[in-house]
Amino acid sequence: MDSKSHKRRATIDNGETGEDLVLATLIGNGDDLGPLVRHAFEMGRPEPLVQQLKHLMKKKEVEIEELCKTHYEEFIRAVDELRGVLVDAEELKSDLASDNFRLQEVGSALLLKLEELLESYSIKKSVTEAIKMSRICIQVLELCVKCNKHLSQAQFYLALKAVDLIEKNYLQNIPVNKVKIVIEKAIPMIKTHIEKKVTAHFNEWLVHIRSSAKDIGQTAIGQASSARQRDEEMLERQRKAEEMNMAGMDFVYQLEVDDVAEESVLKFDLTPLHRSYHIHTCLGLQEQFRDYYYKNRSMQLTSDLQIPSSQAFIESHQTYLAQIAGYFIVEDRVLRTSGGLLLDEQVETMWEQTAAKVAPVLDKQFALMDSATHLLLVKDYITLLGATLRQHGYEVSLILEVLDKSREKYHDLLVEECRQQIESIISNDTCDQMMMKKDSEYDSNVLAFHLLPSDTMPAFPYIAPFSSMVPDSCRIVRSFIKGSVDYLSYGLNPNFYDIVRKYLDNLLIDVLNEVVLNKVHNTGLGESQVMQLAANISYLERACDFFLQYAAQLCGIPVRSVDRPRAGLTAKAILKTSRDEAYLALLTLVNSKLEEFMALTENINWTSEELVQNNNEYMNEVVFYLETLLSKGQQILPLDALYKVGSGALEYISSSIVAAFLSDSVKRFNANAVIVINNDLKMLENFADERFQTTGLSEVYRDGSFRGCLVEARQLINLLSSSQPENFMNPVIRQKNYNALDYKKVGIICDKFKDTADSIFGSLSNRNTKTNSRKKSMDMLKKRLKDFN
């Protein structure tokens, strides 16, 4: 109350009434004064309003004066600063105009110099291009001069190199069109000239080599005759010594060899042929020259095969056969040294055709002969021809058959007899390991055929890793060798070891191998029996070396000569193939048995909500079966075979695990099923590692393992258990961790993978967070696999 009255009095003292305050407020607020003025005139009292307005005006003037006094100095200072800015702006404008003028003057001069510089660059470019063109022309012309020089000196290869260099590097870049046209026309002419010259030289060589073939053949046959004579003398002494040693008599002989001049290697010049072939190759006429050579040599051979009618065969047979020998010795040398001029098939065809023509001619001539001396003389030269050509890789059996046709019948009968015995032995064999009770049995059944090392004698009774069919079959083969040698020892051919080896090969391949394979494929056999047969085959393969040595001993040749790699029996490789076939049959039986066990995966609860820690029953049966199988194999199989059997079985199990996930009977599976399969797989992997170590395979296959055979199943389980399965689509990670998996299979399996549903409160746990993250990653993988497929 007191404060309000005090304010009212203050206002009255200042000459202000309530009406003045209202009027001041309206003006201050910018309100319309029209109604107030209209009201004052309507009341007839405008004077008080006019007085109030004047009083208010004076009051505002006073306020304005006070305001001006307060801000006058700042206003004056701002005006002065503005004038200073205007002055500076004028000076800056003047400076800019001056600088622009000077810049225009300097720029005009530089622009002129720039135009001069660009013109200089243009001139330099033209000069450089002209120099480059001149250099190209000079280089081309220098090559042309070199080419002409080489042609004049008959250096055709160097000339072709120069021409080829011009064609490849310069012809398209020659800047002078006239020079280019001249060179383009000259190149075909040069090549044609070279071809004609080279062909002429080659034709001269053809004539020369044909005339030299007889001397080449006679020289080669003479060397074979000398070698045969020396060998016969040495073999006779060796045979006597070995017979005495076999009889238990200690006998050492010293081979005394007279100084024999080292026979020179056959020498004949193939340089013109190689030069012609090489130059034709450079000309791109390689096939044409091959055909030309083959046709001309074939015509020469046809002429050489004609027996001269002016002489009796007994007088001309050496020349006739030496010409043939020389021809094929030359062809063998050409085949080995000419780098593809002749093919093996071509030489073999020529020789087969020649043998097919020569054999009837010899047969006819033998039929016309009425002198034993003549027949023996021709026969000796024919065998020398066979020995000579055999050294060069030709099969001469067709010609040698003419000498002793009855040999085939004899061996056919002998083979048939052995077949019956072998079939009886193998069919009655029970495939049980053979037991030996004393050392004499071990000597006669093992050491006699070199089936096992003879370093130590085992303890008796001894159970051999093979069945009785092995030594029994070896006895039959040994008797066959003895019968063949006995027959051929009285034949016309003194060098019959190769023939014995051929028939021995036939017996082992066509009889022993065939009968054993028939036994292997017998559907009534079990895994242990097939495994024993596979082991038996490996020991029969090992006995091949003994068979060869035994044949060599009976034939009177050093045993060491049959130890060369190329001197072995073909049957050894065939038996090895049959052994592998037996392993495949064994793996088929093993896989069939494993298939029965793996079929039990259908009993797995693929959508179990509870995690089962124990292994599935089928895996226990699989491990027990593999333990039995590998234990048996460790006793009788070589390590490489044991590795094949073990790895094949484990690879099949790995594939079966993946196939279980792919099975149509499995519509969906969850993480618990993956964990159970993972436990089974770990059990199998631990077994694989343990057996790989205990069997000694780790010492042989240092870079391998049985665990590696389970890689597909392991990578699949690792992928399904991964927290980020979508990494499968990363090429680097896939190559490192999932390289054994197939896109399509992974896509099908992932579509079936459904995680176990979360519980009501599961979203609050950390595990569920990981599960959701893995689920998102798995969904992403599914989507990307669908897009990829």
TrEMBL record:
Keyword set, alphabetical order: Coiled coil, Cytoplasm, Exocytosis, Transport
> Single GO cellular component annotation?
membrane
Presence of the UniProt keyword Hydrolase in the record: no
One GO term of the biological process aspect = acceptance of pollen
The residues covered by the Exocyst complex component EXOC6/Sec15 N-terminal domain are 52-221
Q: Where, per UniProt, does this protein localize?
A: Cytoplasm, Cytosol
Keyword Coiled coil present in the record's keywords: the answer is yes
Domain Exocyst complex subunit EXOC6/Sec15 C-terminal: residue ranges: 400-752
Q: Which InterPro entries match?
A: EXOC6/Sec15, EXOC6/Sec15_C, EXOC6/Sec15_C_dom1, EXOC6_Sec15_N, EXOC6PINT-1/Sec15/Tip20_C_dom2
Q: Which family does it belong to?
A: Belongs to the SEC15 family.
Main role? Component of the exocyst complex involved in the docking of exocytic vesicles with fusion sites on the plasma membrane during regulated or polarized secretion. Involved in polarized cell growth and organ morphogenesis. During cytokinesis, involved in cell plate initiation, cell plate maturation and formation of new primary cell wall.
By what name is this protein known? Answer: Exocyst complex component
